[in-house]
Model the fold of this input.
Amino acid sequence: MDIDQAEIDRLVTRPAETRDFEIKAWIDQRNLDGKAKLLVAIFALRNFNGGRLVIGFHNKTLQPLPGAPANILDAYHNDDIQSLVSRHASETFDVAVGFGHREEQLHPIIIVDSDTRTPVAVKVPITGPGGKQLLKKGAVFFRSLKANGVVSSAEIQPEDWPELMQICMDNREADIGRFVGRHLAGLDGEQIADALKSVQLAGEIRPNLSEQASTWLDEAAAKAKAAVARWPLQPYPGIRPNFRDLLRAGAWEVALVIDPPISGRVADDVFFQTVASSVPTYTPRPVWHATHSGEAVNRHMQISDGWEAFIVLVPDDWWATIEFQRWEPIGRFYLRRLHDDDASAKLRGTVPRRTLDLGRAASRVAEAIIAGLAIAKALGCAEDSAQLGFAFRWTGLEERILASWARQIGERFIERKSLDSEATAIVSVPLSTAPSAVTPFVTEATRPLFAKFDGLSMSTEMLDRCVQLVFDRKT
Done:
């Protein structure tokens, strides 16, 4: 399994507890109790379809802890961790160990492979002194989301089994999709995707969901403008960054409306934590990521019966961040964020508003849809009846040319230019959709954007690659 050192460094710098990212204090896997604790965490992540386990941090404050084992590279050697997993797991799967620096201390991050097709149980138990069973044979562990929104690794409960089985079925469905794709090679992939999508959605889309999503997009965008206007009037520690040029460069927006609306929830800590812990961490800065901290700026605040955050970070050594988020307990979510091209421009030695990497844009759409599905499920929406209405908008497109600096799409598309400044798209996604099956919806959502660049249309195969890169955490 490949280790992305840049990802490791980012995760150690900005850890966050989510369902696919667990934070643990120091564990010494050279003793029986440490082995058991490590295996519980790893097996739970595996059964949740993989994730990351970062060690040596407090899971509440997210701050580094003292007490690291001596010879940390040996204490968390990849071969030892893999051997431990293979010995005790009912089914062998891959793990990898990387190390990141934080405050002159190495912290191990254990990467747990995804693609779970069958639940992993304990094959060989661990028995401590006096016959105490630290890890019992046959136990199945899972990343459970409690009623108060707190996530934990624990022995699976009856209410968790449907989700675990759905994860396994989704991965098997993805295998079937790849099999069918190989055998349909040579046919028009876009026509096949359209036909399958029309069958899936026929008679299911509620007539007003598109209108709701479009209205929410404009309503939330107005809230974003209000947040920008308030920002200079609010206290700010240190030198206030100048971000006006980046703000004028444009952005991409996504508005999500869950239908039917969610009832019985309020914008309290339980709602916030439920959403925050459900968002998958496929990227260094996930869509609708949480910023609930003790800082006076760059954090979510409860306002007007929802949670809002206006985040401004313009560092010299990393991507710029200028984004606005809005979460509402009835099931409405919004994000406005810089184009990846502009956020990374300074770091890449170029300037904003010059290019647009459509591969990155497609991956961001896929991530937003996948995150929306996860949020709706965590909030208890009925998978057999709920619909998710997404409205996407891209601004600041005029005079941009296509690029492929992230190497997600082919070089033949570069140099196409957009003469229009804006593109919009609306797509409805059934909550029953498997995350691995979102490519048809990504195709529908990105088609108006691609067409702005001299009529470009992107193949289903290429879009499927952009989606897969999200799952591979390579975007």
Q: What stands out?
A: Residues 323 and 337 are 4 Å apart (CA to CA). The first strand starts at residue 21 and ends at 24. Confidence is low (pLDDT under 50) at residues 182-186, 198-205.
